[in-house]
Description:
Layout: H1 15-26, E1 34-46, E2 53-58, E3 67-70, E4 74-81, E5 90-93, E6 119-125, E7 130-136, E8 147-153, E9 171-180, H2 185-192, E10 205-208, H3 221-226, E11 238-241, E12 246-253, E13 259-264, E14 269-274, E15 277-284, E16 286-289, E17 294-300, E18 309-316, E19 325-331, H4 356-365, E20 382-393, E21 396-401, E22 404-406, H5 413-418, E23 452-454, E24 458-460, E25 465-472, E26 484-488, E27 493-500, E28 519-520, E29 522-525, E30 529-536, E31 541-547, H6 550-554, E32 558-563
Parallel strand pairs: 1-4, 3-8, 9-12, 11-19, 20-25, 22-23, 24-32
Antiparallel strand pairs: 1-2, 4-6, 5-7, 7-8, 9-10, 12-17, 13-16, 13-18, 14-15, 14-17, 18-19, 20-21, 25-30, 26-29, 26-31, 27-28, 27-30, 31-32
Amino acid sequence: MELRARVDMTRCSHRLLCSLFLSAALFGLASAATRRHDWDISYQFTSPDCVRKLAVTINGHTPGPTIRAVQGDTIVVNVKNSLLTENVAIHWHGIRQIGTPWADGTEGVTQCPILPGDTFAYTFIVDRPGTYMYHAHYGMQRSAGLNGMIVVEVAPGAAGDGEREPFRYDGEHIVLLNDWWHRSTYEQAAGLASVPMVWVGEPQSLLINGRGRFVNCSSSPATAASCNVSHPDCAPAVFAVVPGKTYRFRIASVTSLSALNFEIEGHEMTVVEADGHYVKPFVVKNLNIYSGETYSVLITADQDPNRNYWLASNVVSRKPATPTGTAVLAYYGGRRNSPRARPPTPPPAGPAWNDTAYRVRQSLATVAHPAHAVPPPPTSDRTILLLNTQNKIGGQIKWALNNVSFTLPHTPYLVAMKRGLLGAFDQRPPPETYAGAAAFDVYAVQGNPNATTSDAPYRLRFGSVVDVVLQNANMLAANSSETHPWHLHGHDFWVLGHGAGRFDPAVHPAAYNLRDPIMKNTVAVHPFGWTALRFRADNPGVWAFHCHIEAHFFMGMGIVFEEGVERVGELPPEIMGCGKTRGGH
């Protein structure tokens, strides 16, 4: 369906979606187009780090194609699941799905998965310009290769008479950062569910645009037999620049585990966008980026054009056991330079992996651009304080929020709520704070690590303002706490503050940034610290909120919000057919 100035409301089956079409037309986006994609999801043998293994691909490739669109466009992606023994679902990360909550692509929350051999059409509007991503949201498929980027340009005329964006550049590159394992996701998931648990371990390689280099091909006979360092799949990605020009690098991290530090050797980067929102520009030597985040940075090609430079990706926040991921910044026009020449210097090693203060300073420096700041509501109607702990349930190691480890129901929440299937999930309200919050020692190992499981959602009053405070704590092992990037589906939120130690609701809210907080959809909670965010529950549907580390969500680190589900239009029958809707296609 194309977006036009005139919208025939009588022909729309979903009132909210039609209202969105009409609103977009009234705001001057009458030239919006429909962009169609046909994707075949299949396993293929690939060698992204020179080691041959099966990957989940889109039309035979990983990463998948970049979706490019203009603000207000309608995206239609016809997905055929050619995985012979595996379901699939795809999440459009950062796209709010206003009026189309069933297209969010979250198995167990907004849809039943796409069965082997079946086809499903995701249809949604990209309502805001920026840098986004997509990835699998079924089991642990994201780490198997099903991922890619979404780039949404500003609509002509949407920015008025001024500049279309608060910065200018001459060219653009996209950078998709990932981590890569040689073990299959089946092996990883089975290990996480085992007693005793078998951890996924550190990745074998770091990829930039799906390319890397495993440095230890002779580590075992099996690896040596499957490793080919001259394979074209693992040739380093090359980013061409012309001396004197300024370039926008759109960067996304789709990692399954690793927090990363990204650097372009010899070139300062000016941060200008985060998760689709303009940032008050600040300059960095290197950029900390957590799984699920996107940034835009500007660089000027002002170095010696007679040589090339490294793009480098390094693990931070975990003791690294993975070599630096690399690509090449190639200067064109140098008299003594080949575009594919290896840079003459070692790749940048990045900052100290355990320098938490350095990473917190960057988080605090990320605030809204003065001309594009959206003030948050001055107060909230409700505060949910979530203590994030590592626990044990029946001998299994799990993650929990307020001592409850999340499990997905067999019937998607959105379907169950719209159809009145009250027995599909736990109806008891989940806890909004944790026992002993006033005196809890976040630096100590819990005396009682036992927890429970639940799939109960948080029910939010539609239109209400909600504060969520994420509290990090010590894990089961002494003196250990990790960075957790939390992603909210269906919304952007204001990042009100970060702090160290235990959050005190009587003290810390007074220091919230209510003047120019950045809006994001993914935010880091730093070790032994807290992060406060605020959002308005104004998007009818059911939305996941979870740690974006694949293994952590698998182990229970997540919750679900419901808001205004009675306002959601008629559900497409294609999202049904599992759980209590079995046979309901």
